Amino acid sequence: MPSFDTARLGANHIFMDEMQRDLEIKGGSPVQRGGIIPGTILPAFSLRMHADCPIPVVIAAPHGGRAYPAALLETMRDPAYSVIRLEDRYVDQIATEIARQTGAGLLVAHAPRAMIDLNRASDDVDWEMIRGGCPAEERRTMTNRRSRTGLGLVPRRLPRLGEIWNQQISRDELAARIGGIHRPYHQALAKALEAVRDRWGAALLIDLHSMPPLTAKHEGDRPAEIVIGDRFGASSDGLLIASAFAYLARQERATAHNRPYAGGYVLDRHAAPARGIHAIQVEVCRSTYLDRRMEEPSARMAAVVRLIAGLVQELGGATAGLGRAGAMPIAAE
After folding, report:
1. What domains appear along the chain, each with residue ranges and CATH number?
2. Which residue, 70, 148, 191, 290, is most buried by CB atoms nearer than 10 A?
3. Whole-number pLDDT of residue 217
4. Which residues, at least 6 apart from 254, have a Cβ–Cβ distance to it below 8 Å?
5. Cβ neighbours, 10 Å, residue 99
């Protein structure tokens, strides 16, 4: 495993490389930097939208951030272990390359999941992690959903490690992370989806994640390499889901629907099929694109990029069709 200093310096170097790569995306579309990582001058995320919006899809990578402030790493009990397991390892690179190939909009988090989980509600806090505990005004709205598992807004525990942190954080620090990262990220995503929907009549958010290898439930079964989540039908038109599985079947990829990953807060917050905004979560098995240690990209990453880029193009066409169908009654009047 990398040393403490290597993990810190490597993450910051990678982050600066990616900022430069963003500027080189085809078409010369401007990159918008948003939010701020507390304790740094670094943006919390980057958003790139083509002016001509050639495809009604926005790809988001909320767990791809790898810009770790030194102060954050210093409060982790085992940063080398925790960093790799909390990240959707190199999904930010996959999302960036897919956006290059397809023209889809792109929203990539730079703030790491260890600092704040963008796929959790801002009130899903384990208040035992916070010095001073829960403010009285928060108690009546406290949901405490995923935080009970140790993976709430600020992750607390990991398997085989236990506690991630060696100290609590202050309420002010939590507020800075929400205000500097969580709130502006979701505001930017909402605005981007609205703009695409207004242009095409429908928009699709693909919330891109990676997952550890799944275990076969029965002998002879082939574990899913890709899991499509749509909140059990609540976040997307069924036509898009059918299109996704038809495409993946043609590619002979083992897939699953909603189990074990149906999507989370991102889909709950942003999906609005009745208003023409659809959202799905796509989980890609890390073994399909990382090395045996699940740490670094393998030669298979390019094939995974092509696979998901094809899925994006397929779903972009289907989403455009939904937009046209939705516009027909208005056009006839």
Report:
1. 4-117+170-332 (3.40.630.40)
2. 290
3. 80
4. 222, 223, 224, 225, 226
5. 28
